[in-house]
Specification:
eight-stranded parallel β-barrel, alpha/beta, globular, 568 residues
């Protein structure tokens, strides 16, 4: 069934309705667990679910696989995102024919993010320049078979400098043959309400669904705001800033704000909301429960909220499946989680243009230039690196001097944490999770190591193998580790009242290699910001080809500073 028809039926019922958005997980285990999660969430009664599409078709196979399961196995009407970024007509046709074969009639036509390795967005030869071109092509080639949706931007597209012209581009997409609209997320209901009034005043009658993303964590919120430039009400920003050291409080605040925002939308006559899940379950379900939407299904799947004790084996199992990966899901979150790598699923790593990159990161031509750049970052002189789009977290100040030292020695750090031994979960710097608990973590350092230094560094790691776990890989695909096959290494864990031990951060071969591809690709993105054949571009590519990515975990968290003896 076409989503536009389902949306009109929902509107005719005069009842609130909702939909979900997922992204293709980075790992096979994550995909398997997402299937389990979607099966439960499908019982909540979404009008449809949507699945994102990677730039240039990077996730094409997994997106189609996930869409096929949602449509055919779980019986939920499914919208497949399709971008025209770096996609020629043959690739677009292959995607659309694959959707038809899977029984998927609904497409969200997007331009998409800039392809990796490109300084500026350019159309692929034989491809499309804008989403409107993709809408027109689908209509010309496939007639009315597909129900085509487009994106709406209540605050204007991030690259637009003219709000009026941006709105005209949106109108053109609808007039080209769009059947429905899904809006970019907003944190201010009034922004969407006023924009929708403008849409209706223009004579546009297709269904418009408001995008809503409950805040899941302080770090993911900051990164998403940075990437999308979405406006944040000052009251929300202030409350998140106050709660940022308490992960449970941030989630609770995210639920509270989403509920209030949806109620404000409903009061203004907006019945439909599109909930971006980030492949997580608990916060979205809490929002729906508070709103009385999908309530019967919520009761049947168990009402255990994060941090509440539950009784009964079946209920405990349901609650654990819902919340087991609820806390920090950064790069070194659990690779089994559907949310593993969620930050990377919504936007490319580098957001500077060539001039901005040169201004902040300079024009590196030597290894000392690289070491100096990283040292300036860890000491707070600059606020970002090509691999990190925001300043270091406060807990890193504890090891800041050592980080500066090792970076100048040629160990270019991408991630690190100090050892902790039973720090209160309420601690403003190191705490996380529900209050009343204690958190622990092992010291670890992830860094690039120049080829000339790697051999001696590896020898020191091997000499300390009884205490240290390491993972190392280069761009060519060579991989070394002393970890036992199939086993992961816990980095962070917490003990909280009424809950099983929570282990949100670990590293294993799967998660390390998933990040390896991203990390080395970023070298090439950085190089692409300089003129082809320039000294800087050649140097960065050569450095990427010669260096190793290494992750070192000191398993003895009682010896807080011992890890630094390895970096000489």
């Amino acid at each position: 069934m076409k989503v536009s028809d389902k949306l009109r039926q929902a509107e005719d019922s005069k009842q609130p309705y909702f939909s979900f958005e997922y992204f293709p997980p980075k790992t096979e285990q994550g995909l398997a667990n997402l299937y389990d999660r979607i099966e439960r969430m499908a019982r909540l009664g979404p009008v449809f679910v949507a699945v994102t599409w990677g730039a240039g078709g990077a996730t094409a196979q997994r997106t189609l696989e996930l869409c096929s399961a949602c449509q055919g196995v779980f019986g939920v009407e499914t919208v497949m995102h399709l971008t025209c970024t770096n996609m020629d007509i043959a690739q677009v046709d292959a995607a659309l024919e694959g959707a038809k074969a899977a029984g998927i009639q609904n497409i969200l036509a997007l331009r998409g993010d800039p392809p990796r390795d490109a300084e500026y967005w350019t159309a692929c030869e034989g491809g499309f320049s804008h989403a409107v071109d993709l809408v027109r092509y689908i209509r010309e080639k496939y007639g009315s078979y597909f129900c085509v949706g487009v994106a709406g931007y209540p605050e204007g597209h991030i690259e637009s400098t003219d709000a009026d012209q941006d709105f005209e581009y949106f109108v053109a997409k609808v007039e080209a043959g769009a059947d429905f609209v899904v809006s970019q997320l907003a944190y201010d209901a009034n922004v969407f309400i006023q924009w929708e009034k403008k849409v209706r005043a223009r004579g546009i009658t297709v269904p418009v669904v408001a995008g809503v993303l409950p805040v899941q964590s302080y770090q993911s919120f900051r990164r998403l705001v940075f990437l999308t430039k979405v406006a944040v009400p000052e009251a929300l920003r202030e409350r998140l800033e106050e709660a940022k050291a308490n992960d449970q409080a941030v989630k609770d605040l995210g639920v509270e704000h989403a509920v209030a925002m949806v109620r404000q939308l409903q009061a203004a006559g907006v019945r439909g909301v599109h909930l971006t899940t980030l492949n997580l379950e608990n916060s979205v379900q809490r929002v729906l429960e508070a709103l009385g939407m999908g309530e019967a299904a919520i009761k049947s799947t168990g009402r255990a909220l994060a941090g509440q004790a539950v009784t009964g084996q079946a209920m405990t199992s349901a609650a654990e499946r819902r919340v087991w990966d609820d806390f920090p899901n950064g790069r070194w979150g659990d690779a089994r989680s559907p949310a593993f790598g969620c930050a990377d699923a919504y936007g490319a790593m580098l957001k500077f243009d060539a001039q901005g990159a040169a201004r902040v990161w300079g024009r590196p031509c030597t290894l000392d230039d690289i070491g100096s750049l990283f040292a300036r970052y860890v000491t707070g002189e600059i606020a970002s690196l090509p691999w990190s789009d925001e300043p270091l977290r406060a807990e890193t100040e504890r090891i800041g001097a050592e980080l500066a030292r090792v970076n100048r020695l040629g160990f270019w750090t991408l991630a690190s944490q100090p050892a902790l031994d039973g720090v209160a979960s309420a601690d403003a710097t190191h705490g996380w999770g529900p209050r009343g608990g204690y958190v622990y973590q092992k010291a670890f350092v992830e860094c690039f190591v120049a080829g000339a230094k790697f051999g001696s560094f590896l020898s020191r790691l091997q000499s300390s193998a009884s205490r240290v776990t390491y993972y190392a890989a280069n761009r060519q695909g060579d991989f070394l580790t002393n970890a036992h096959a199939g086993e992961g290494t816990a980095l962070t864990w917490g003990v909280f009242p009424g809950r099983a031990v929570v282990q949100p951060t670990l590293i294993d071969k799967i998660s390390f290699l998933a990040w390896r591809a991203e990390a080395f690709q970023t070298w090439r993105e950085w190089a692409a910001m300089f003129a082809q054949g320039s000294q800087e571009a050649c140097f960065l590519r050569e450095t990427a080809d010669e260096c190793w990515l290494v992750n070192v975990v000191d398993n003895d968290y009682k010896q807080a500073d011992a890890i630094w003896d390895l970096f000489q």
